[in-house]
Amino acid sequence: MTPSRRRRAMLPALAILGLTLSACGLSGAETPAADTAESDQPAEVTGKITFSTLQLKPTFTEYIEGVIEDFETEHPGTEIEWIDIPFEGAQEKIATDAAAGTLPDVINLNPNFAQPLEAEGLFLDLDQEVPELRDAYVPGAWDAFQVPEQEGSFGFPWYLTSEVTMYNQAMFEDAGLDPETPPATFDELYAAAEQITEKSDGKIWGMHPALENRFLLDLAKEGVPLLSEDGTEWVFNTPEAVAHVERLTAAYQDGVFPPDSLTEDHSKETEAYQAGRVALFPSGPNFLTIVEENAPDIAEVTGVGAQITGASDAANMSVMGLLVPRSTENKATALKFAEFMTNAENQLAFSQIVTIFPSVTEALADPYFTDDSDGTVESQARKLSAEQLENGRNLLPVQYDDRVKAAVIGKVQLAMKGELSAQEALDQAVAEANSITGM
Amino acid sequence: MNRRLRLAPWLFLAPALVVAVVFHVWPFLNTVVLSFTDASALGGGSFVGGENYVRLAQDPHFWLATRNTVLYVAVVVPLLVLLPLLLAVLVQPQIRGIGFFRSVFYSPVVASMVVVGLIWTWMLASDGIVNQVLEAARIIDAPLPFLTDSTLLLVSCMLVTVWKGLGYYMVVYLAALGNVSSEYHEAAQVDGANAARRFWSVTVPGVRPTMFLVGLLSAIAAMKVFAEVYVMSYGTAGPGGEARTLVYTIREVGLGLGGQIGYASAMSLALFVLTIGFSAGYLRAQRAEAR
């Protein structure tokens, strides 16, 4: 082939390569915040919508399908298509759907998952769409779907949980502690944990730190400001936080925590409690059921106390919500369905199947949550949790995503191993967290 | 040659080409383009020139991950070249019951890496069987922190990679050993060579091309190590993330709703260059030796 013929032969190949490059990467994303024109929207509650949940199948299939059926009966002409997304990989699926503009009409998210999408303006502002509903929900739960520095609230709060302090009463007794008096402050918690480890000659660990779940939450409960007042900077490297990390370090090095607990997650904490290796287990009351199923002998000696709130006196609650994307083609039905799914009656029914709590104040006032006269540990936990929820808040800032968490916990792990001082660890954690979140 | 005949090979190739373009060439080109953007998980991003690469050069996590990945290759590859060969030599003779041992050695290959990782995590825990045995044998006084010391964690992951890969490469070597004529062994034996001498002077030269192949395949696999580190550290890459590898870091940066796809793409290309560079150097060394 002569050079000129070779050049001519290469032209189509180059053209294809050029087209390929221009077609990929930069031009692939949809404008996420595209509003569907109001005129295209059916004004009445009718037509088909999609509804996605986070890992509720198959355990709650019957309940969810029942609510959907009730809604369709109450609103003839509506059809709800239910999709369940496994927790693993959910963020990737949601991100792909958001970029493609194909989010379901009603989507189940927690505040941390929702925040990056809310910040992009993807969801309807419920303060504008259904302002009359705000007062029906637990205030802290409604506020959980707000974005710092941005107007509006974007999610119908759905089910809630609020940690309680579970503890092994037999181990308390063996260590000379009062089995009927659970620790009420962080000082009492760590003192009890230390005493149990000491009295058992190190055979029992007082507590598991479950850093990924609890570290930043505990700082917030201790009254440490996590973010600056304007919410633009992480600032949790305060003397109180240093004292907290030093306490964790001492507990780890004294054998109060399991040696492998530095990197272990909450599931290993649950395993250790169920195996009778750990005495204190601050966790959601739903774990009582899990302990009862897997370790009935441990469940039998499990007592329960209120969530330890520290200097801030603020109880944390975890929130799940239902959000309606602005791209929905059936806003009226989507909003009505989200409201229906989260109403008092349906949430009360849901919380009687599994140990979760309704986000509607009316449902929380039901005797199911206020009466513990049967004396069971479950009803005590329910009552304690429900009381906490009234003034509970989602204490974890929505900016605390997986990467920030990994950076912060990583530095705390190094401090607990003795490779960094508490101050160094927190300074580095704050710097890294700020660099990740672009603050 | 008429037009129809000229097109015929392309028609036969078409299905494979379509798959290659859609699932390999296109994503690769997409990654190249994205690496020059500030794309996030939620949007296409805009062109930022070489900013991601400048950031990469200054990112201590990237360099730590690169160091760990190179270290991983340096330790794992020699072991995966030699140990499966020794194992293949052991299980090569056609004696009664040898099939059982071949199957046992091969079985880790078919097990899921996540399951293997979990089992080893239990075994290497502070109160796991490995520490119990070492303590019972009085080799150590206190449990070794296999899972909470970054160096030990990385070494543990390397051992798991080697353990899981042994059977696969053993089978590759078994095929190669079948091509080494037994006459060479007999001649060496007549000349008075013992088993070790025959291994180094007859077996190894006989399977040398396969050793290069195993070296290359295991190196490429080791560069992509992820599951071992992820599972055995409960997703943390050890205290402070100090046992991180390149793929672990790419995942950490790129996944999730806050994922920085542009930066993760730049990191992926760095891994690509590392892998291609290593492979090219390795192949050149092989050719030089063959001459």
TrEMBL record, chain A:
Residues 1-29 form the signal peptide. InterPro entries: Bact_solute-bd_prot1, SBP. Coiled coil: none annotated. It comes from the Bacteria. It holds the Pfam family SBP_bac_1. Keywords: Cell membrane, Lipoprotein, Membrane, Palmitate, Signal. The keyword Ligase does not apply. PROSITE patterns: PROKAR_LIPOPROTEIN. PANTHER family: ARABINOSE-BINDING PROTEIN-RELATED, POLYGALACTURONAN_RHAMNOGALACTURONAN-BINDING PROTEIN YTCQ. This is Carbohydrate ABC transporter substrate-binding protein (CUT1 family). It comes from Isoptericola halotolerans.
TrEMBL record, chain B:
Residues 66-282 form the ABC transmembrane type-1 domain. Pfam families: BPD_transp_1. It is found in: Cell membrane. The chain crosses the membrane at residues 7-26, 70-91, 103-125, 152-176, 207-227, 261-283. It is a multi-pass membrane protein. CDD domains: TM_PBP2. InterPro entries: ABC_transporter_permease, MetI-like, MetI-like_sf. Keywords: Cell membrane, Membrane, Transmembrane, Transmembrane helix, Transport. It comes from the Bacteria. Belongs to the binding-protein-dependent transport system permease family. This is Carbohydrate ABC transporter membrane protein 1 (CUT1 family). It comes from Isoptericola halotolerans.
